[in-house]
Amino acid sequence: MRDDRVNADVMPPQAPAPHARQQAPVRSAGGRRRATPAPEAPGTAEATPELSLNAAEKLFAAHGFESTSVRAIASEAGVNLGTLHYYWGSKNGLIRAVLERRLKPVLADRKARYESLLRAAGSKPVDIHALLEACLVPALLMPGADTAQRQSFRRLYGQALADPSEAIRAIVDELYDESSRIFLDALRRCCAHLEDDEFYWRLTGILGTLLYSQLGTGRLTRLSRGSFTDEAIEDGLPQLVAFAAAGMMAPSIKRPTGTAPAAAARPGASTRASTRRPRA
Predict the structure, then answer these.
(1) How many CB atoms lie within 10 A of CB 109?
(2) 8 vs 101: CA distance, rounded Å
């Protein structure tokens, strides 16, 4: 199977890196052969995995997961295929390592922000603007990162969210689901005026907007003839939050004005009962 497919299970076997130390079988005093110790990791510097992950991240962000071959990553990192196989075993293993390295800190930050808001709100719904900021700031601003790191992460993040392959979806779902459920439950409580189908359709539109803001395609810069750039994301964040909050909090368009709203259903609940006309 080609090495550049996302669903490739194992990288092509290669000879160990030239500088990997080869160990002879170990024998006991009685001459019996004992298990050979695990080989030393290819490369004498601890930076080898980091360099490979940096190269993979750069190419995945620029070209996507499917279009980036393992050979291209090895070439960019200055290592052979055997080195990548040694550390990650497969392309999917490498993709997982790249995503975990960047996404776990972001998602942990999000979760901590959500939980802080929920504790402060107590039994009341959280402020929707604060909730949306808690979702966006860790991913868009990456506190502590410089502009180049933010841009690189935004592209990688967008690729991960937009990739349709089952392998990537499984990795992303595993990493995201815990914090996403906290966000979804909190946002649903903010939008008790909406029936379930309205809530999820509006959320679909908001998520699409946020995803596009992550991709950093530069298309709007071209269409605006250079009068706009999405690189200064810290300036755009308040606009995204205001837009998303206004969309979610806008009045229901299904229910006549003055009609009492139905009780907000929990996320995932059936909408069959909530779509009936209110009793007189």
Answers:
(1) 17
(2) 21
Q: What are phi and psi of 229, to 5 degrees?
A: -140, 145
Both tokens assigned to 249: 């909090």
Write the pLDDT tens digit of every residue in 144-159.
667 777 777 878 888 8
Q: Quick one: which of 56, 44, 54, 139 has its CA closest to 93? A: 56
Alpha helices in the chain (DSSP H): 47-63, 70-77, 81-88, 91-121, 128-136, 147-162, 166-190, 196-215, 219-223, 233-249
User: How confident is residue 17, by pLDDT bands cut at 50, 70 and 90?
Assistant: very low
Q: Is 81 left (phi over 0), alpha (psi -120 to 50) or beta?
A: alpha
Give φ, ψ of 28 to 5 degrees.
Answer: -80, 175
In the DSSP assignment, the letter for residue 22 is P
More confident residue, 22 or 233: 233
Q: Are 51 and 97 in contact (CB under 8 A)?
A: no
Average pLDDT, stretch 167-176?
Answer: 91
Kindly state the tokens that stand for 104.
């776990």
Query: Could you give the CA distance from residue 5 to residue 274 in angstroms, rounded to a whole number?
Result: 45
For residue 27, give the 3-state DSSP assignment.
Answer: strand
Beta bridge partners of 185: none
The interaxial angle of helices 147-162 and 166-190, nearest 10 deg, is: 100
As a residue count, the chain comes to: 280
The DSSP symbol for 34 reads: E
- Residue 207 to residue 54: CA distance in whole angstroms: 28
- The string of pLDDT tens digits covering residues 242-267 is 999 999 999 999 756 555 555 544 55
